[in-house]
Design goal:
globular; alpha+beta; 563 residues; six-stranded mixed sheet; 4 domains; four-stranded mixed sheet
Length: 563
């Protein structure tokens, strides 16, 4: 069929029919309320209808019903969590499924900073905020996409591998087709999807159904009444994400080869630890040899939602991506819209810039645009010298740290980076962009377009606290709090488990990663090891429901304590 929209309509009808025939009613629902509680509820109902019942009898019946309901719900919750733990399923997902309500937005800050609780006004604030956010604000020239050969057909094997790489139980898009449905299909479904997607790729056009999405606002941290503290996640069509995942697999190597060594975000063989270790080592060497060092930590406002589409396409052309894929991706970002629903009324927001958060190809597109902008910076003689070359910056997606030998150099680099960032739509956050300098560095202040940037004594970079003394006291305190925060929700399951091996598995997979995050970048000192051992023993005692006195009474010493 010539029109991709009509073709996708027919495909969608067939998939929805398959889903309807394949679905079975769930008949094993676990009753949350016991028979005894139901009898109490019936008795209370009878008392309310009895004109001779006294007020005291009704109060006693109400209290008995409340207590019985609370006990039944707690028992049901404990049973479901225990089943999830014994089945080694996600406890976080289990608790989310057991939650019977979501925290609603009760108030929002308007443009003047005034709190409003009117639902109609809150919807208007949301519509204005995201309309302005997704409106194109920087003119970027349309890229000159050269002519290219017709791309190879999409193979059923590519579809199969892309489906297998999708996370299970992900939220479906507006078309209600889930990843679990595609995963349940076999080779015949893979062949059908490959034929349809090959047609879209050959025509370099996508169905109009893929241009719409549903946006969910996820609170990050900070004031819940400020929309800037929410991350908009697009619930896209699963078939669209399958299509872009196949394209990503084909162009990923080309994009990675165009990235410099400084970029560690979303690249195979790179991780956060690379950047954390590098920054930590630079701080230590400069401190040891009494060298001046200034670290400037750059934070962008809504970076993934602000980058201009034409900048992304220009970057893809510049980095050698095949022209047919560039034109297809250009069509993917043409005339898009999303709906945000705070209450009953869906709010439609047109999208003219930014990458679609929730799409697997989006991080690669963003880093490509960032590299396209930063390659014009002449920083060959800027930064600090490491093994004969200058290290000027490190990046993990939009998290950038600049290295310099003085505050004057740091200010020049920061303003140059700001200028090239503005050309692709990126805006620096003046309040969250900070700098840190050691005792051997001259200069007192750094300004960004006349605005003074705050100096800090420590900064949390990629999840690890850094300071110019390389003092781990603050970071160990953060790891201790993170470990106890991870252990708290776990106790609902561990207090019921008798299997020591399963209990140890939950502890090792949940608590230890929180306690030991970035531990490979720490200095191995006796004080650090003692602090870790102290926290680890305290967590193990709570896991086994011991305290120091009962541990000594049981004759269990540290090497003998079973987890």
């Amino acid at each position: 069929m010539e029109d991709p929209t009509e073709d996708y309509d027919l495909l969608l009808q067939k998939l929805q029919a398959c889903a309807e025939h394949a679905s079975t009613p769930q008949t094993t629902n676990l009753e949350r309320i016991s028979l005894a509680t139901k009898e109490l509820l019936e008795r209370r109902r009878a008392l309310r209808l009895d004109p001779n019942a006294s007020h005291i009898e009704q109060l006693v019946a109400n209290a008995c019903c409340r207590r019985a309901l609370q006990e039944d719900l707690q028992k049901h919750r404990r049973k479901k969590i225990l089943e999830a733990a014994e089945g080694r399923r996600s406890l976080k997902k289990c608790r989310r499924d057991l939650r019977d309500h979501n925290i609603p937005l009760t108030a929002l800050l308007n443009e003047e900073g005034i709190v409003t609780s009117s639902r109609r006004e809150m919807e208007a604030i949301t519509e204005r905020f995201y309309t302005n956010l997704f409106r194109s604000s920087v003119p970027v020239m349309n890229p000159n996409i050269p002519a290219g050969d017709e791309p190879p057909r999409i193979l059923p094997a590519e579809v199969r591998v892309a489906i297998q790489s999708m996370k299970p139980s992900t939220a479906p898009g507006p078309d209600r087709i889930s990843a679990d449905l595609l995963r349940a299909g076999g080779h015949h479904l893979h062949v059908i999807l490959a034929e349809h997607m090959s047609s879209y790729l050959r025509k370099e056009r996508i169905p109009n159904q893929w241009r719409t999405s549903r946006t969910v606002l996820i609170h990050k941290k900070g004031d819940r009444e400020d929309l800037r503290n929410y991350r908009p996640i697009c619930l896209l069509s699963v078939l669209y994400k399958l299509f872009t995942k196949i394209i990503l697999t084909r162009i990923s190597r080309t994009l990675d080869e165009a990235q410099p060594q400084e970029q560690a975000g979303f690249r195979q063989g790179f991780s956060c630890m690379d950047n954390i270790q590098t920054v930590s080592r630079v701080i230590e060497v400069c401190r040891e040899y009494r060298l001046p060092l200034v670290l400037t930590f750059v934070d962008y406002e809504k970076a993934f939602d602000s980058v201009e589409t034409n900048a992304i396409l220009s970057a893809l052309v510049d980095q050698g991506v095949d022209a047919s894929y560039v034109r297809t991706l250009a069509d993917c970002y043409r005339q898009c819209s999303t709906t945000v629903q705070l209450f009953q009324r869906p709010i439609t927001i047109p999208i003219a810039k930014g990458v679609r958060q929730g799409d697997t190809i989006s991080p690669k597109l963003f880093t490509a645009a960032l590299q396209w902008a930063m390659k014009s910076l002449n920083w060959d003689e800027r930064g600090i010298r490491v093994d004969g070359r200058f290290l000027s910056n490190l990046r993990f997606a939009d998290d950038i740290v600049l290295f310099s030998r003085s505050t004057e150099e740091a200010q020049a680099m920061l303003n140059e980076l700001n200028e090239v960032g503005k050309k692709i739509g990126l805006r620096m956050n003046r309040t969250k962009t900070k700098f840190m300098k050691n005792a051997f560095c001259d200069g007192e202040r750094i300004e960004l377009e006349g605005t003074q940037i705050a100096e800090t004594m420590s900064y949390v970079y990629l999840g690890r606290s850094l300071n110019m003394e390389n003092d781990l006291k603050e970071e160990l305190g953060r790891r201790r709090r993170a470990a106890w925060a991870a252990f708290g929700p776990l106790r609902e399951a561990t207090d019921q488990l008798t299997d020591h091996e399963l209990r140890a598995h939950l502890f090792d997979s949940t608590v230890l990663p929180a306690l030991c995050y970035a531990a490979e970048t720490w200095s191995d000192t006796a004080a650090t090891l003692k602090s870790l051992r102290t926290v680890h023993r305290a967590l193990e005692r709570c896991l086994l429901r011991y305290n120091r006195r009962t541990q000594l009474q049981a004759g269990l010493f540290v090497p003998a304590v079973p987890i």
